[in-house]
Design a protein that fits this description.
Layout lengths: L12 E5 L7 H31 L6 H31 L1 E5 L2 E6 L5 E6 L3 E7 L2 H6 L1 E8 L4 E8 L1 H21 L10 H4 L4
Length: about 200
């Protein structure tokens, strides 16, 4: 749920983004790597189990089965924990762009949330790692007044979000410049001159 549900008067939501499912790439690749590493271990344990069964044919040992179970748990539990945390981050993160501000709320264990008025945006950058280019996600780095940086990571189609953000910032800055400020009348110099 987005904590930024209160919109200002005249504020319209231009785009809502969830982080891309590419956030699961690293946990899935880690799981695949661990399964590849587990195959030789499973082979070694099956040979070890066969040797133990050969020594005690009437009573198969439970120690070998327990050892296999323990090794599988040691390999899989951390990866499943990381996958669960990644799923919670995916479900709890949201980025909202309105015609006046950029609001974001990301993370689960370490939560980052904030908003940036579009008039305070100084620069925007796109960062796409190789894996992001393959799967269609990247980071849009927004730089605000004073050099504060807001990295919006794992955004799907970052070029589209970048274009919408760029247009919204230009519109926000143009509308702030076009607001007519009443010009105070220039005082007459005679009012301030001493009378003789």
């Amino acid at each position: 749920m987005n904590p930024f549900t209160n919109l200002q008067p005249g504020e319209q939501v231009l785009r809502k983004e969830r982080i891309h499912a590419g956030i699961f790439v690293i946990p899935v690749l880690t799981l695949c790597a661990e399964l590849v590493l587990a195959l030789p271990l499973a082979f070694i344990f099956s040979i070890f189990n066969g040797m133990l069964k050969g020594l005690t044919p009437s009573n198969p040992p439970a120690a070998a089965d327990f050892l296999v179970f323990l090794c599988v748990m040691v390999l899989l539990v951390p990866v499943l924990g990381v996958f669960l945390v990644t799923l919670l981050v995916y479900l709890k993160s949201e980025i909202t762009l309105t015609n006046k501000r950029l609001m974001y709320s990301t993370g689960f264990l370490v939560r980052e949330a904030g908003e940036l008025p579009l008039q305070n945006v100084e620069a925007m950058f796109i960062q796409e790692p190789i894996i992001g280019r393959i799967f269609g996600f990247g980071t849009v780095l927004v730089s605000g007044v004073g050099g504060v940086r807001f990295p919006l990571r794992f955004i799907g189609k970052p070029h589209v979000f970048y274009a919408v953000l760029q247009r919204a910032v230009a519109d926000a800055k143009a509308s702030s410049r076009s607001v007519a400020h009443p010009v105070a009348s220039i005082p007459d110099d005679l009012r301030y001159m001493p009378k003789i």
